[in-house]
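Dear H.,

Thanks for agreeing to be a second pair of eyes. The structure we're designing against is below in token form, covering all 282 positions.
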């Protein structure tokens, strides 16, 4: 596995692979690698000859009161996990490389960025789209692999790639979960043992909503109410949002029709957690 922070090193490696007719897949991460990231690497390996993974804790997507400074950065463990997973190039750029002092450009996807996470974390998605646009411009992969856990982010990046004519295929992998259903997240490391037991409320609420859908319920209000009913049994869970939206437009819906996204966010102790599932009536 090649490990470098240099933009030129990435471009040279990808150019060599291209000359050999090899297909390149890219997995952008902020590190603190877990089985969710490794599942993306595995899928990337199945669709390409070479896999590039980036680790960059992007300051643009953190608000002033968020956890940028304390975000986990286990560098050695990350490197070992990615090497074992068969990654060909680990790119670890420095902030000064991606955002030199004269950097002024921002990328913004309107409408899709305004609800859900966008409403709770103003400016977050502008930071995400800006950094991913830069990463894609350097790596120029054939496939970009993203996780369903960050469904809104994936939808926004799909739109960005389409709107800017970026020649990459955006692919989503299912959310990877713990045995009790908790979605894997780097921020799970913030949870105490008691908080960890409470955090399972997110997936249990979503499962209850899914069961109502299976029973034929189509009222978004009833789905939201069912999630909140489950959450009331978990006093450590503090709701940020519970939403039912159109999976393509991300606009709230009153009645379930077509493909929808049920998305939740909550604080449990010092961790802010998100989860979701998609459902189609077709």
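And this is the sequence the design step returned. I haven't edited it by hand at all.
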């Amino acid at each position: 596995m090649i490990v470098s922070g240099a933009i030129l090193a990435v471009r040279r490696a990808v150019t060599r692979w291209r000359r050999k007719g090899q297909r390149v897949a890219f997995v952008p991460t902020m590190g603190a690698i877990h089985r969710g990231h490794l599942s993306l690497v595995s899928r990337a390996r199945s669709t390409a000859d070479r896999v590039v993974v980036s680790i960059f804790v992007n300051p643009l997507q953190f608000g002033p009161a968020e956890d940028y400074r304390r975000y986990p950065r286990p560098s050695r463990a990350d490197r070992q996990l990615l090497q074992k997973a068969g990654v060909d190039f680990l790119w670890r750029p420095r902030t000064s490389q991606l955002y030199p002092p004269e950097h002024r450009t921002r990328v913004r996807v309107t409408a899709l960025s305004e609800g859900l996470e966008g409403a709770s974390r103003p400016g977050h998605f502008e930071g995400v789209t800006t950094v991913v646009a830069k990463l894609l411009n350097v790596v120029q992969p054939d496939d970009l692999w993203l996780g369903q856990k960050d469904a809104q982010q994936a939808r926004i990046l799909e739109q960005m790639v389409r709107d800017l004519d970026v020649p990459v295929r955006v692919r989503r992998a299912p959310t990877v979960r713990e045995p009790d259903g908790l979605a894997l997240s780097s921020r799970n490391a913030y949870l105490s043992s008691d908080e960890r037991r409470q955090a399972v409320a997110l997936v249990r609420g979503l499962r209850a909503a899914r069961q109502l859908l299976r029973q034929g319920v189509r009222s978004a209000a009833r789905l939201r109410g069912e999630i909140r009913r489950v959450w009331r049994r978990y006093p450590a869970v503090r709701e940020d949002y519970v939403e039912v939206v159109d999976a393509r437009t991300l606009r709230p819906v009153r009645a379930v029709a077509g493909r929808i996204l049920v998305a939740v966010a909550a604080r449990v102790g010092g961790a802010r957690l998100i989860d979701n599932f998609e459902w189609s009536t077709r």
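Two observations from my side: The domain at 186-276 is CATH 3.30.1300.10 (Pantoate--beta-alanine Ligase; Chain: A,domain 2). The CA atoms of residues 109 and 154 lie 12 Å apart.

Warmly,
E.
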